[in-house]
Specification:
By secondary structure, the chain is an alpha/beta fold. Helix content is 18%, strand content 26%.
């Protein structure tokens, strides 16, 4: 019993002195947001989502399969017409691939797009983002 107690004290002492790993700064990506319809089909991650769900289609550059289910915070940087959402942010889930997107562009579901534009789908369908 004394041996177990001594081991436990050593374990606690060692962990108390451990230095946490250095965290790396998050990298911001700047691109453009567009929107698309699900049309009742499963995304490339295999999930069925409604147009009102807050989901993202990534460029094939990102090897989408390795990002399926990940949450991404997106900020509306403005641009477009009738864009009442400059400065708004949304957290959406990667569920699909956008074959026509540039490396840092995101194709958003109606739900995610409208959350970023104050409810509009036409500012005119594209605006600047950071994610």
């Amino acid at each position: 019993m004394l041996f177990k107690s001594a081991c436990f004290v050593l374990y606690l002492s060692a962990n108390a002195l451990a230095v946490p790993a250095t965290l790396q700064r998050r990298i911001d990506h700047t691109g453009h947001a567009t929107f698309y319809e699900q049309n009742g089909a499963a995304g490339s991650c295999g999930q069925y989502n409604s147009d009102s769900s807050q989901i993202i289609a990534l460029s094939p550059y990102w090897n989408v399969a390795s990002y399926c289910g990940r949450k991404i915070k997106i900020t509306n940087n403005g641009g477009g017409q009738n864009n009442n959402g400059a400065g708004k942010t949304v957290v959406a889930t990667v569920e699909d691939t956008c074959p026509g997107c540039g490396e840092n562009d995101l194709d958003l579901s109606h739900g995610a797009f409208q959350a970023l534009t104050g409810g509009n789908l036409d500012p005119p369908g594209e605006f600047s983002i950071t994610w």
